[in-house]
Design a protein that fits this description.
With 51 residues, the chain is mainly beta. It has one domain. Helix content is 8%, strand content 24%. Strands 2-1-3 form a three-stranded antiparallel beta sheet, with no helix packed on it. A hairpin with a 2-residue loop joins strand 1 and strand 2.
């Protein structure tokens, strides 16, 4: 999920919690309480790009 050289999140990996896209949040940002307690799922999705 991170680039091996820059250690940045890969651009086509998206993180969704409680219906919100948190892909651009800092990696150490606090998760919502519902995610931290396991009441809601944490989704990691590969985005699809085309052209």
């Amino acid at each position: 999920m991170r680039d091996h050289v820059t250690h940045e999140r890969r651009p086509l990996v998206r993180f969704f919690v409680c219906g919100e896209d948190l892909s651009h949040e800092p990696p150490d940002a606090q998760l919502p309480e519902a995610i931290a307690t396991g009441a809601e799922p944490f989704f990691i999705m590969g985005a699809i790009a085309g052209g």
